[in-house]
Amino acid sequence: ENKESSSSRGALIVLEGLDRCGKTSQSGKLYKYLDEQGHSVESWRFPDRNTGVGQMISSYLANKSQLDDHAIHLLFSANRWEKRSLMEEKLKSGTTLIVDRYSYSGVAFSSAKGLDIEWCKAPEIGLLAPDLVVYLDISPEKAAERGGYGDERYEQLEFQKKVAGSYLSLRDSSWKVIDATLSIEDVEKKLREAVLDCMMTCHKGKPLSQ
Ligand code: DGP
Ligand code: NA
Ligand code: NA
């Protein structure tokens, strides 16, 4: 049984957190659960490395190219902008999107480099506002212990400490914070509860705000 009526819109669910917080595997579990429940749902992630802009970002993250901090910031933002109309289309047609990283990553990672926070926020204005932001909370030290970091540019303890500080300053009361050091099953359960709750609200006709 499909639980959504054709007139109700999908929810924009964003997962945020430090590298190695478990976001990506939790997004996958959440997607599988909602899909099996009969919801129209898609799993997205930013950066989307498949576009032309995404390939420039990917090369930068792999340390294969160098870019000015402002320039890469704008590319990350452009990567979200190039998906905006499709995102709106999906949501309006009733598909819920689970998005692994969004504008908060943009602001948290770039402001951690010392860029002005208001400057960092500016290119994000006009992107669709999430219905729910879930922050998977883990200390930078604990995250670093998890199977070690890969070779990508930002996966270093000292930098992740700065990112954690930036995220903390961005958090507001609308964020749902989940302790990412709980068992995988417990995180999954808490995430499901938060998301199902949000989806009910969206389906009651809450507008798609910006
Ligand atoms: P991921 O594919 O989720 O591992 O993300 C790749 C890396 O890029 C990760 O260290 C987080 C970082 N990142 C994600 N989005 C942004 C963004 O918008 N701006 C900046 N500066 N970094 C970002
Ligand atoms: Na990563
Ligand atoms: Na990730």
UniProtKB/TrEMBL annotation:
<dbReference type="GO" id="GO:0004798">
    <property type="term" value="F:dTMP kinase activity"/>
</dbReference>
<comment type="pathway">
    <text>Pyrimidine metabolism; dTTP biosynthesis.</text>
</comment>
<keyword id="KW-0545">Nucleotide biosynthesis</keyword>
<dbReference type="GO" id="GO:0009165">
    <property type="term" value="P:nucleotide biosynthetic process"/>
</dbReference>
<keyword id="KW-0067">ATP-binding</keyword>
<comment type="similarity">
    <text>Belongs to the thymidylate kinase family.</text>
</comment>
<keyword id="KW-0547">Nucleotide-binding</keyword>
<dbReference type="InterPro" id="IPR027417">
    <property type="entry name" value="P-loop_NTPase"/>
</dbReference>
<feature type="domain" description="Thymidylate kinase-like">
    <location>
        <begin position="15"/>
        <end position="190"/>
    </location>
</feature>
<dbReference type="Pfam" id="PF02223">
    <property type="entry name" value="Thymidylate_kin"/>
</dbReference>
<dbReference type="InterPro" id="IPR018095">
    <property type="entry name" value="Thymidylate_kin_CS"/>
</dbReference>
<dbReference type="InterPro" id="IPR018094">
    <property type="entry name" value="Thymidylate_kinase"/>
</dbReference>
<dbReference type="InterPro" id="IPR039430">
    <property type="entry name" value="Thymidylate_kin-like_dom"/>
</dbReference>
<protein>
    <recommendedName>
        <fullName>Thymidylate kinase</fullName>
        <ecNumber>2.7.4.9</ecNumber>
    </recommendedName>
</protein>
<keyword id="KW-0808">Transferase</keyword>
<dbReference type="GO" id="GO:0005524">
    <property type="term" value="F:ATP binding"/>
</dbReference>
<keyword id="KW-0418">Kinase</keyword>
